[in-house]
Structure to design on (623 residues):
């Protein structure tokens, strides 16, 4: 981690379990720079360093499989992905486009689940959480796997979960509200299976995520509607060792994505607010990557990739921008990265070139200098990244004089630096700074006639720094971090600014919907070999969000109070052989936290959950 050419955080299984987190969102909140916001239709997704990241700017992978949905490239985090079968999470806060492509514009998250060797048996986890008036979450995760021999290993994991987002009232712009207790369901069914035989590695992921919602845009609906997100992913790859120094890996990956599916008939009172959505997309991807150890101190990774997206609408009479009910895009990529290690400095030089059938060429170079000494490490990273518009961003853009979508690729330039120091074994501090600038920002807008669409806007981005203190000893661990961002001097997009009547910027340094100051603690104290106590908290400073209308019925920013989410969990290992018990309280102070929009999009936001009492039982049968 000290020499990796990126600003990297790795979360271990122990850190995740001891925190008492019930989903991936609560885990990522403990990481510097991450916060969560809403958009529409019950969606909650991540922001990173103040920037809206859930619309294809942060790549989320499960075991290397890209799980961003294909029509808006969004990530959906609230009670979605299971945490009980996670082995570790690797996070890059900063661009990853040079190696990973267009979704990795601002960051990369890879969730790595337990494989057959980690399990070598069966593991069952049952989790129940209770808020005032309703259950918060209830889930079961069953995992099984085994390393049969040096050639064969397999694993399979199933996850079934139900949750309520909140037990609070959700108001709209016009004073109407509804009780979220029975109107905010979040339900997930997921399956993850893997088989490795010699050099062949095959994985299958099924993900069925369903939200129950009444929120939409400026006004709440009178009735609840289901919105479904379904993904089926499969990959086969083979590591062919051409020689001791050369490994060639061909892989085929397929993704079938059916997101945002709302097919119920409109209900009484919702004629102007509810619209059906029913589209599907199939992505086929071929990738060949070679890893070459040219010398003991020089490694080169190079390869090529072909992606084909085929999308179809299933609503009668609905067509894409070209007048057909199906559309196809192709992207061809070439990429290379070299890492040279010397006594003075390690240098990383890489680049990716894309050629998209609709947008032409995209270029993402990166250069990094890193070096780890006995106690000190240094990093300087310079990157350019890009994000190609997604299928529906293309479809909802205006057409130019030639009848082509009038929208372009986002281009992001980032400079990062890090200094780290190890005071003693197990005690270290890292300080990083960043400057991120997004040109041709892809922006959702609504015109005066109520027509929604996507277009390129001005420059957005942020600057700031993050500090991480890590202590790991025999008695436990402490992870404490502070994050700060500012958009001053960078952001020119009014929709991301804290504006009154589009004339007065009342908080120039802030970006809408995110707190410029965040402090997070995750810790674990071992009382004895079996019993440990894990206090954690997340403090988010005041922020601005568009939550009311002014006298002219224009959306107006309102300062939101700071939020302090305090949690305490107790973990007891091997109550009886293989049985672990944990219990605790999330949001002890019952703080009112809102998922606000990270732009001025005529949505007051979604209330988060209140105080949650939780208990979890985990049984591991080692075979």
């Amino acid at each position: 981690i000290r020499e990796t050419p990126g600003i990297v955080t790795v979360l271990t299984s122990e850190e995740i379990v001891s925190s008492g987190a019930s989903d991936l969102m609560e885990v990522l909140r403990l990481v510097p720079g991450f916060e969560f916001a809403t958009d529409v239709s019950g969606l909650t997704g991540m922001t990173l360093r103040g920037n809206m990241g859930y619309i294809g700017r942060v790549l989320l992978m499960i075991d290397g499989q890209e799980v961003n949905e294909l029509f808006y490239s969004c990530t959906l985090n609230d009670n979605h992905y299971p945490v009980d079968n996670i082995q570790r999470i690797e996070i890059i806060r900063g661009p990853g486009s040079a190696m990973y492509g267009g979704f990795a514009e601002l960051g990369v998250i890879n969730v790595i689940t337990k494989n057959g060797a980690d399990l070598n048996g069966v593991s069952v986890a049952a989790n129940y959480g209770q808020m005032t008036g309703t259950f918060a979450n209830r889930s079961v995760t069953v995992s099984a796997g085994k390393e049969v021999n040096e050639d064969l290993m397999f694993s399979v994991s199933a996850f079934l979960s139900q949750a309520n987002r909140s037990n609070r009232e959700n108001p709209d712009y016009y004073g109407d509200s509804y009780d979220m207790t029975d109107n905010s369901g979040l339900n997930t069914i997921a399956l993850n299976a893997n088989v490795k035989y010699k050099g062949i590695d095959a994985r299958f992921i099924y993900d069925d995520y369903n939200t129950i919602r009444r929120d939409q845009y400026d006004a709440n609906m009178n009735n609840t509607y289901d919105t479904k997100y379904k993904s089926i992913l499969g990959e086969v790859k083979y590591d062919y060792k051409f020689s001791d120094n050369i490994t060639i890996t061909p892989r085929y990956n397929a993704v079938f994505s059916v997101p945002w599916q709302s097919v119920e008939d409109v209900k009484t009172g919702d004629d102007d607010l509810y619209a059906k959505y029913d589209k599907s997309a199939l992505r086929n991807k071929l990738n060949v990557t070679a890893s070459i150890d040219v010398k003991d101190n020089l490694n080169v990774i190079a390869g090529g990739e072909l992606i084909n997206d085929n999308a179809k609408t299933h609503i009668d009479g609905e067509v894409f921008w070209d007048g057909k009910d199906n559309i196809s895009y192709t992207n061809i990529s070439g990429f290379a990265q070299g890492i040279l290690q010397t006594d003075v400095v390690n240098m990383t030089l890489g680049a990716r070139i894309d050629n998209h059938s609709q947008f032409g060429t995209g270029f993402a170079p990166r250069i990094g200098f890193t070096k780890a000494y006995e106690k000190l490490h240094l990093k300087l990273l310079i990157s350019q990244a890009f994000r190609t518009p997604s299928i529906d961003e293309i479809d909802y853009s205006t057409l130019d004089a030639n009848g082509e979508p009038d929208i372009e690729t986002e281009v992001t330039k980032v400079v990062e630096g890090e200094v780290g120091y190890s005071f003693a074994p197990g005690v270290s501090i890292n300080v990083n700074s960043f400057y991120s600038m997004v040109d041709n920002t892809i922006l959702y807008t609504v015109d005066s006639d109520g027509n929604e669409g996507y277009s390129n806007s001005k420059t957005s981005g942020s600057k700031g720094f993050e500090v991480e203190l890590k202590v790991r000893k025999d008695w436990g661990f402490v992870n404490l971090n502070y994050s700060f961002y500012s958009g001053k001097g960078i952001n020119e997009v009014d929709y991301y600014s804290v504006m009154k009547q589009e004339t007065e910027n009342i908080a120039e340094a802030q970006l809408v919907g995110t707190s410029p100051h965040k402090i997070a603690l995750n810790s674990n104290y071992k009382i004895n070999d079996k019993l440990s106590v894990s206090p954690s908290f997340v403090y988010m400073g005041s922020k601005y969000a568009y939550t009311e209308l002014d006298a002219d019925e224009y959306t107006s920013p309102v300062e939101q109070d700071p939020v302090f989410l305090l949690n305490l969990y107790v973990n007891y290992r091997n109550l009886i052989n293989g049985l672990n018990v944990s219990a605790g309280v999330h949001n002890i102070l019952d703080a009112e936290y809102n998922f606000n929009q990270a732009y001025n999009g005529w949505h007051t936001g979604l209330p988060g959950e209140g105080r949650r009492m939780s208990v979890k039982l985990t049984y591991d049968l080692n075979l």
